[in-house]
Amino acid sequence: MDETDPQPTDFPIALPTSAAAVFFMLLAVLFSPAVATALSSEPTATPSAASITLSLLYFAVFSFVLVVLTLRIARLPFSAAFGLKRPPALAALKGLNFGIATTPLLMVASGLLAILANRMGLNLEQQPIFGYLDNGGLTKWAEALVIFFILALAPVYEELVFRGLAFPALFAWRKNFWSAAWISGVLFALVHCNAAAFVPLTLLGVILCMGYRESKSIVTPIVMHMVFNAANLTVWFIAHNINPHR
User: Fold this and answer.
1) Which residues touch 199 (CB under 8 Å, ≥6 apart)?
2) Which ranges of 40-87 does DSSP label H, i.e. alpha helix?
């Protein structure tokens, strides 16, 4: 597919409003350590179900408010801004197909980078969300909440912000698909604040933009993102069961 197809006008989000939304999203991440500390009187202890709930909802609510405000400022209805007028079942099927096709490649790349980092003597930590599961002290309810966040909530709000808002605005600005995809991919990786996952998440961000380009519906990258997270969660559970004290 030619990089000029689709046209920037196919994604009606404007740069100023979108840039403001992404900026505030990054700002929220920078303040997240302070928020997490405030939610727990004993930061080194196993987090309670309440503190986990609040910390996860912090990002979700913040992101959804940003999306709503951005659309209000841009005077765009939700369905028009994110391509939801197109058949959602077809967009979801494309997301499932693309996700299944690309996730193994991303996981191989992530594994190779981890091996390279280990050979270089670098101690790269896992993403904080998996740290919640790794501590082994969560209640079943709290563990289910974390899994729900990984599989469903995070893909929805992250795609609305980074593919739904950031990518179209960058595309309208740069007039070039690949430039917009790589910039939004880097922003997407930065927001996770994890050195070990930076390169794989940047690649994932670019691939998700490709899915969005194919369907012009935000449903496609959301489903792709869910497939990727489900695969990573499955690998984590397998590794944890093989070596529960890792």
Assistant:
1) 109, 110, 113, 189
2) 49-74, 78-81
The count of structural domains within the chain is 1
The DSSP output letter for 103 is: H
Residue found by looking up tokens 């400022």 in the block: 73
Domain that holds residue 25: 8-242
Q: Can you tell me which residue has the tokens 């190779």? A: 112
**Cis peptide before 6, with omega less than 30 degrees from 0?**
yes
Separation between Cα atoms, residue 16 and residue 34, nearest integer Å = 28
* Residue 136, both tokens: 């082994």
- The pTM score is 0.83
Residue 3 lies in a domain: no
- Burial class from Cβ neighbours inside 10 Å (0-12, 13-18, 19+) for residue 89 reads exposed
Residue type, 184: S
Q: Are 202 and 188 in contact (CB under 8 A)?
A: yes
Q: What are the two backbone dihedrals, phi and then psi, of residue 181, each rounded to the nearest 5 degrees?
A: -65, -40
Strands, DSSP E only, in the chain? none
237 three-state secondary structure? helix
pLDDT 10s digits, 130-160: 766 766 666 777 788 888 888 999 899 899 9
